[in-house]
Amino acid sequence: MVISYRGTLIRQILRRCHRAVAASKNSNSLTCFHGVWPPTERRDFEQHMRIVPDFISEAEEKQLHEEIEPYMSRLRYEFDHWDDAIHGFRETERKKWYPKNRELLERVRQVAFNGEIMPYVHILDLAPDGVIKPHVDSTRYCGNTISGISLLSDSVMRLVRTDAEKYLQNSSNASTEDTSYRQQPEALLENNFYADLFLPRRSLYIMSHTARYNFTHEILGNEHSKFLGNPVKKTRRISIICRNEP
Ligand code: OGA
Ligand code: MN
């Protein structure tokens, strides 16, 4: 009796370990590093930018989409302001969810946030020709972790190292204080290092600490959307984004 209980427990633990290793291997193969990365920066980045492929099933994707669509389809995509960080999108926030979707968001809360999450979930619907330009979510409105589930489409997310000193100088300068939700510090590709991440449909990404503060993030538009040299066609993409308190 004791032996069989121990056997079951060991099998369970081994299964969990195999799953964790498989997940981290997958996550590595979904990241492509460009430029010369200082080793410590790369280690920190790998720890703080994670992708969990197949975080939700096809049925769960459908169920999320079905809850969002009636409201979302009534909004119009915004293409007007080229200065804005996002182009070709509509968005909303939701606090109350159907029980099935609530369960799934509870999983995000546990996996990505150790239980501490903002009650409003942000839903961003990007048109097929929409783009999210390089930006950093304002530290005024968002804490150290941002997570996103991708629905309906694969995409490529690029994270580019910002010039931390320049960025801090600017944001601490009261006269030019930026109250926008998404700040757009300069992040150049030349003489710099950055990473492209393949975000499969139904995956979850978890962006925290250095990845969240020291890198801009963006979703590449179709003309630039490539991973390891292969074009990644982005169709309509909905992301379910959770954040923690600043
Ligand atoms: C944002 C953002 C990323 C995503 O809304 O600020 O970066 O996955 N979204 O849609
Ligand atoms: Mn953002």
Describe the model.
This protein is α+β, with helices and mostly antiparallel strands and 246 residues long. It has one domain: Jelly Rolls (Sandwich), CATH 2.60.120. The chain is built from 6 helices and 13 strands. The chain has helices at 2-29, 39-48, 58-72, 99-113, 164-172, 209-213; strands spanning 31-34, 49-52, 86-94, 121-137, 145-151, 155-161, 182-183, 194-199, 204-208, 215-219, 226-227, 230-231, 237-243. β11 (226-227) and β12 (230-231) form a beta hairpin. The chain binds N-oxalylglycine and manganese (II) ion. N-oxalylglycine binds at residues 124, 132, 137, 148, 182, 217, 239, 241. N-oxalylglycine is lined by residues 124, 132, 137, 148, 182, 217, 239, 241.
Main attributes of the structure:
246 residues; alpha+beta; Jelly Rolls; two-stranded antiparallel sheet; 13 strands; binds N-oxalylglycine; binds manganese (II) ion
Ligands, deduplicated: N-oxalylglycine, manganese (II) ion
The DSSP helix count reads 6
Could you tell me the CATH topology label. Jelly Rolls
On the 0-100 scale, what is the average pLDDT?
88
Which architecture would the CATH scheme give at its second level?
A: Sandwich
Low-confidence stretches: none
- CATH H-level superfamily title: Alpha-ketoglutarate-dependent dioxygenase AlkB-like
Quick summary:
The protein is an alpha+beta fold. It has helices at 2-29, 39-48, 58-72, 99-113, 164-172, 209-213, and strands at 31-34, 49-52, 86-94, 121-137, 145-151, 155-161, 182-183, 194-199, 204-208, 215-219, 226-227, 230-231, 237-243.
